[in-house]
Write a structure and sequence with these properties.
Length: 791
């Protein structure tokens, strides 16, 4: 085979690795072919199976060396040529800042920034699984005789490692907890409230980051980077009215665990093949997640086949003894988590107390060896025991692939397709590019690059604020902050009013930021800060024509006042839209892009806050006036529904006739319950068997037409609902979604696949999935099509 002449970038890359190695006695990788200390060890032989290599490595470690590797900052073991390793790095929506100096990623060298994609909640609003996977997909790269499909976050992470600015390639993302309560400060990090959407996002993200194909199953043992699905499980409260995540005991029914909290993690493991999961701080039904053998070993590893490492959240082991009082002694906490199946402690508790736990006979060394096998297996899959990374499959990823034109364009595409048009009275939007001669831009978020990127973000490449984006369309543009901050503790109403009176149009860029919602800070209200709301209404009253309100936020807001105000003609929700979010907003406002985003969470009215955030029940309880949670169970008033979103086009739907609209199940295994004196028959999915379920597939074809004058990308959301809601079944359930690009006047036939075992089943009180006899209605928009289940 003819070898290519090394490029300048390749030579710079090699030189940088040599310089890094020369700064210490230990190179940043293990098993260097030139190192006589290690090249003869079996654990360095890449021709051997990883299991065999790991067994050899672990057998060579002393007890003290073994214990040293059980924490996120794992030190070097020089006598074996093993470098130090940092398990903790972040990549929620782009490679992120190191929050502590001990973390794995640094922006202090050749690479000083990374592409900041929209915060996850806005990316989820695209309802485009391929886009989630593509966040950063570039052209295939031929190297070492096979193709590697590249994804942006994984690419940029590997590039940062390759230039010596990372001590690890294990990233603690994605966050796939269900956005159960609208007050949750970390809801912005999640794909929303629907378990199926969240699961599909997890699969797409994990496959993309780790270097697998979109369809999955082609990764093999190599990892471009390692993804970690968190926080396992039923974690969705941080700090609400003094109740913190560290001591919260989530009381969750088997029914809610089965069909709400656990499905995203099951998808992440079984379909995404995630190489990591993180156990959460909180207890579930009295047992700390990180000390729950049933959760970590029986469910994740036993039932779901998880093959990777399990990390604690940071200091989650210490709180089991010090805050929760679940373990009487520190050694008990250490023994509990390792026996449960956890492998590595973010923190120092295992470093401090594991040896004494062994000496006190609370913990066998075999549990330590088990954990080390999982940890070193992942490090070997990442290539850290294969010698110089330049000669490995992902060694040809360089700094020029960070903040690339392709990645920034993809960040723009994600923001464009995620932004949701909530109101457009009398077709105020889009504004005319020729007739708009002057524009007032007012608001504390109008020129804030920091607000654009949300939390868990790295330094962005070239941020574009809404003000900067709008300047590309209007020469006479006037700007006023309106308030000193989003809470408007100091509002400059008079100045903003005077400005608004003198221009053709007014765009108000308002909403929230990380001072209002973030990790360790849940909201107590769903409305905007009062002075901000007053500023919006005041400006709307004096403007020449109805104003446009843009909201930046991670969580839903009760904006009933704006929804019902005729002087507010257009409303856009833009989440935290990433580094080029300002450009995406401007393109939508002036009609260079047709909005198509849909809300991935329900927007509740303010009175929803009367429900304690600590109540984990999903299903309503009419006798106690408990309304339930999320669109699947909540039956109260809404500001905006899950899946709501307008467009500049009108779309028309039509269900085409189904070849079969009856699902026949084997009634020999059916059971019966009586509800309100009515006998209801059902069949457990587990009794039907995997083979039968896999064969039961029903095509559903939908014809959709763009009945407008603009081309658009339109997400199709297919729901199913039982004709008669009963027995705790969801009011309705999203079963499939797909985005379609249609030109003005164009139509297309889109085929979905209905799988009854998955789409028509719901959990019973024992946590078992069951299909109930009766009629079900498939729905999209205002169209419905019936399908019957016959036992």
């Amino acid at each position: 085979m003819k070898l290519r002449t090394p490029s300048l970038l390749h030579l710079i890359h090699v030189t940088s690795l040599l310089l890094i190695a020369s700064e210490s006695t230990q190179p940043p990788f293990s098993c260097d072919s030139s190192d006589p200390r290690t090249n003869s060890y079996p654990f360095c032989r890449t021709t051997l199976p990883i299991t065999q290599r790991v067994q050899d490595l672990v057998s060579r470690l002393t007890l003290d060396e073994k214990i040293s590797q059980l924490v996120n900052s794992a030190p070097a073991i020089p006598r074996l040529g093993i470098p130090d390793y940092q398990w903790w790095s972040e990549a929620l929506h782009g490679v992120a800042y190191s929050l502590r100096v001990t973390q794995g990623i640094r922006f202090n060298g050749t690479i000083r920034s990374a592409t900041s994609f929209p915060q996850v909640i806005l990316t989820a609003a695209t309802f485009d699984a391929h886009l989630w996977y593509r966040i950063g997909q570039a052209s295939p790269l031929k190297y070492c005789m096979f193709y590697v499909r590249l994804k942006a976050v994984g690419i940029e992470a590997r590039a940062i490692y390759n230039v010596g600015q990372a001590k690890g390639m294990t990233f603690w993302a994605p966050n796939i907890n269900i956005y159960r309560d609208p007050r949750w400060g970390r809801g912005q990090e999640t794909p929303g409230e629907d378990p199926m959407v969240t699961g599909k996002y997890a699969v797409s993200f994990v496959r993309g980051l780790q270097g697998d194909s979109f369809e999955g199953g082609k990764l093999g043992e190599h990892l471009q980077a390692s993804a970690c699905c968190k926080h396992f499980t039923a974690y969705d409260l941080d700090n609400w009215r003094g109740m913190t995540r560290y001591v919260f005991n989530a009381k969750v029914s088997l029914q809610d665990l089965a069909d709400t909290y656990q499905p995203p993690f099951k998808s992440c493991i079984q379909q995404g093949n995630a190489s990591g999961i993180m156990c959460a701080y909180n207890r579930v039904n009295g047992v700390p997640n990180c000390a729950d053998y049933d959760l970590l070993s029986k469910t994740a590893r036993g039932q779901w086949g998880f093959n990777g490492y399990i990390t604690s959240d940071c200091d989650a082991v210490s709180i089991i003894h010090e805050d929760q009082g679940y373990a009487k002694l520190p050694e008990d906490a250490v023994a509990d988590v390792l026996k449960a199946g956890m492998d590595v402690n973010c923190g120092t508790y295992l470093k401090k107390y594991t040896k004494s736990a062994v000496e006190k006979r609370k913990l066998p060394v075999s549990e330590i060896d088990r954990a080390l096998h999982n940890l070193f297996s992942v490090r070997m899959r990442l290539g850290f025991f294969n010698g110089n990374p330049v000669r490995q499959p992902f060694g040809n990823i360089h700094s020029d692939q960070v903040c690339s034109h392709e990645h920034r364009n993809l960040a723009l595409e994600a923001a464009r397709n995620g932004i949701v048009l909530l109101k457009n009275t009398d077709k105020l939007l889009p504004l005319s590019k020729t007739k708009t001669t002057s524009l007032s831009v007012i608001g504390p978020n109008a020129d804030s690059a920091k607000t654009l990127i949300g939390n868990y973000a790295g330094p962005p490449c070239k941020p574009i604020t809404p003000l900067q984006g709008l300047k590309n369309y209007v020469k006479d543009i006037r700007y006023h902050q309106g308030c000193d901050a989003v809470n408007c503790s100091s509002a400059f109403t008079a100045q903003a009013v005077n400005m608004a009176k003198g221009t053709d149009h007014v765009v108000l860029v308002m909403g929230l930021d990380q001072t209002q919602e973030r990790e360790d800070h849940d909201r107590v209200d769903l409305v905007l800060p009062p002075k901000q709301q007053n500023l919006i209404s005041t400006i709307a009253r004096v403007a020449k024509i109805p104003v446009i309100l843009v909201l930046l936020s991670g969580g839903p807001i009760d904006i009933s006042f704006a929804k019902n105000d005729k002087r507010i003609g257009g409303i856009l929700w833009a989440g935290y839209p990433g580094e080029v979010g300002g450009r995406a907003l401007a393109e939508i406002i002036f009609g260079d892009h047709n909005p198509g985003g849909r809300l991935p969470v329900t927007w509740y009215p303010q009175n929803y806050v009367k429900i304690p955030m600590t109540d984990m029940r999903m299903r309503p309880e009419p006798s106690s006036s408990y309304p339930g949670r999320t669109y699947r169970f909540y039956q109260g008033p809404k500001v905006f529904e899950f899946g709501y979103g307008l467009s500049y086009s009108n779309y028309i739907y039509q269900f085409l006739p189904m070849t079969q609209n009856k699902v026949y199940l084997n009634n020999q295994s059916s059971s019966q319950i009586v509800e309100n004196s009515n006998p209801l028959r059902y069949m457990l999915v587990s009794e039907m068997g995997t083979e039968v379920c896999d064969k039961m597939k029903y095509p559903v074809t939908l014809r959709v037409q763009n009945d407008g004058i603009m081309a658009g990308k339109h997400p199709l959301l297919l729901f199913v609902r039982p004709e008669k809601a009963s027995n705790g079944r969801p009011v309705k359930q999203l079963v499939a979604f797909q985005s379609v690009n249609l030109n003005a006047g164009e139509s297309a036939d889109i085929e979905f696949e209905l799988r009854p075992c998955e789409h028509l089943s719901s959990a019973n009180e024992d946590g078992l999935m069951a299909i109930q006899e009766g009629s079900y209605l498939l729905s999209i928009g205002d169209r419905e099509s019936e399908i019957q289940v016959v036992l």
